[in-house]
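User: tokens in, sequence out, please.
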């Protein structure tokens, strides 16, 4: 008997072409082969640091919207992981790039950045825990997808003296395990939803995947 498709697989199938195009983006290719202009990466680091602050707020909304303690625990755990884990990658790079944390926190978020996080926060305030999990999913999974595809093509990319740390951060087992927990949470929250409700969640996932591409464009062009 054919195995039932998971909702996560449904979302990924809908966006597979878009996700493949991330890998061809000049910013991502520059990380992969080590040729990315460090000024572009510096700009990206500041913008992504600002993004992660609101990203953590979206997870916090998941704590508020969750209907059971297990979901609350998982959402709360992600807030800690972002603040004490993923943001550490950025803090390490910012130190190497001479960016003071207080300056990064006071920096102005670019329009694309603000639009993306405003969309996720709107979903968080207006909809339930399942929609919050789905709005987060595209960013979380696409970074692992990019890092692992880079290593598939160039197994030594993680040894680059500058960009290797970024690749390792998103291809490491710890990041993968956190994503597996997020997928499991999403599947549980989506269980029993109607087709109309799943269509809405698919729309959220597609929109966030498109925002991911806009973020790479923004970083490459260093847009205000």
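Assistant: Sequence out:
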């Amino acid at each position: 008997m054919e195995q039932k498709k998971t909702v996560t697989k449904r979302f990924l199938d809908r966006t597979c072409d878009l996700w493949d195009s991330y890998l061809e983006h000049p910013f991502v290719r520059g990380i992969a082969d080590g040729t990315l202009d460090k000024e572009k990466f510096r700009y990206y680091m500041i913008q992504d640091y600002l993004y992660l602050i609101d990203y953590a707020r979206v997870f916090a909304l998941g704590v508020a919207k969750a209907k059971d303690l297990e979901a609350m625990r998982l959402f709360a755990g992600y807030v800690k992981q972002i603040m004490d884990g993923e943001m550490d990658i950025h803090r390490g790079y910012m130190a190497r790039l001479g960016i003071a944390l207080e300056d990064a926190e006071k920096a102005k978020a670019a329009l694309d950045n603000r639009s993306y996080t405003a969309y996720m926060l709107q979903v968080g305030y207006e909809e339930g825990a399942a929609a919050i999990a789905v709005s987060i999913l595209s960013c979380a999974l696409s970074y692992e997808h990019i890092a692992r595809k880079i290593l598939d093509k160039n197994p030594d990319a993680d040894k680059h003296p500058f960009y290797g740390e970024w690749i390792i951060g998103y291809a490491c087992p710890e990041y993968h395990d956190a994503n597996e927990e997020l997928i499991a949470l999403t599947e549980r929250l989506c269980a029993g939803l109607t087709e109309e409700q799943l269509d809405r969640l698919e729309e959220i996932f597609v929109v966030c995947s498109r925002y991911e591409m806009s973020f790479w464009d923004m970083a490459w062009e260093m847009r205000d």
